[in-house]
Amino acid sequence: MVQHNKQITTDCWPEKAQYIVGEVVTLKMIRPIQIKTLPNICLFRLADIFPAEPIWNQTSSQKDAEILTASFSQLPAGYYGVEISWGDTILSTAFDITKDRRQDVRYGFISDFKQSDCGEEDILFANKLHLNAIQFYDWMYRHDNLVSKVELYNDPMGRETSLSTIRTKILACKKYGIRPFAYGAIYAATQELYNQHPEWALYTIDGVPMKFADWLYFMNTSENCPWSNYIVEQYENSISELGFQGIHMDTYGFPKHVLDNNGSAVALEKTFPSLIERSACAVKEIDCEAGVIFNAVNNWPIEEVAPTNQDAVYIEVWPPHDTYFELYRLIREAKQIAQKPVVLAAYMKPFLGAETNESITAAETSLLLTFAVINASGGRQLVFGENKGILCDSYYANYAVIRDSFLSVVRNYCDFAVRYSPLLEYNSAVDISMTAANGINEDILFHAKEDIRFSSNAQADTVWTIIREYEERLVIHLINLSGITQQWNEPKLQRPNSVQDIEIKLLINHRFSNIYVASPDFQGGTAQILEYRKETQNNGQYVFIKVPNLEIWDTVWIELIQ
Fold first, then answer.
1. pTM > 0.85
2. Residue 342: its pLDDT value, please?
3. Is 224 inside a domain boundary?
4. 414 with 323, same domain?
């Protein structure tokens, strides 16, 4: 988290976006030069302090500040919050330690590869947002000839590209604990390759070759078509020659049912699983940490591709998936098919053309709500990348730039999504949102001032309650849609109406230790203990809780005693 105090900027962040078990965890922080004492530093696992003593070091000095590092050894796997303080300055950040980077895929992007883009600023930005995988978008020489044979070239859209810059950024990703993924469309070929191999192409019923944007030819991804071997070899070259650690297998969402060169029907969704499996095996043979991610455009064909050997279920979201509840449903259904991370490529259209303070603020509010919904639903959002970039278009080079005044808010939300990941993940939980609260359900009752309504399905102008039961805790996410419509990808001309003193009446015939609330909107995400009272009624023991304030996203949880 960045803090400005008396014209001096202070900051703290982990040296890597993600750590592997056994690695030394190093935190960096900027300390004002006039302060000579070491800060107090505290690690947390959810609300609990995790005892650990750092080793301190001063690495460099600036005009008004020093860079300090605090290193921790032999920390166990898990998600950690960090709070650092000296005087009246309080900073926070987060990090995680894992045995396998595939357990949690926090996906970002970069798209600028000119010679002059050879610095690490974009990768450091991704690191501070804890993005542990980055898609290199449109880095390739051609869609069907990925690795250039010359150092300087123009990409398929005519943009200047440097192989040296790409190599530099791949190395930077690995230094910061980020896996670099190479963009690679699964079936796009140039006119030149089509002319050489028209038998590899896909055709309409009239025998016309299928094209995308009138310049890329669709190729047959069936296992018995040589194109499938050809594109897998292109993926292998990207890993072996440049050091990428993954392939982003892009699709365009169409066509679905076509013909091969012999006029035989091809159902493309049936060809995808084999191609994914072969691609994953091929890249892992070169680098055991490598993997693939397949783009299921608008959730098609999720039943076929979600169970395959890919690192995450990845869905590029388009209409008619227009509402907040649709985002929740996409994630929940994907999790039910495959127990693996889910990434929604949810591009924030409100930033397109936003130039006035009012329009930018409306876009920022839209982003925060969407990010909260996706993460509270158990997914991750592909939206951040480049140097302070926000995706607002499917052509990633058209990204918007985060204004400085909003940057600390973005980092708070990204810190929160890592620090409290155990409250977000879906795999070991039962979602009881629709069976425990609202409607006729009376296990959990919500109440606030008279004009505030609550819903289990993201209705407009309500506080949306997402509730999950874990073996060790009960979690309630409160998403504030008060005064907000259901559509996620539209400007929000006003922030949600603040809601004070939300009363929760909870039937809980289970022993518990404490009740907490945390929010990215308050106190750097620090967990607060909530007071409660118990009352025995006909159905059993009820607990009465009061949540003081809701701006956009609060998370309440009850730690159960096993």
1. yes
2. 98
3. no
4. yes
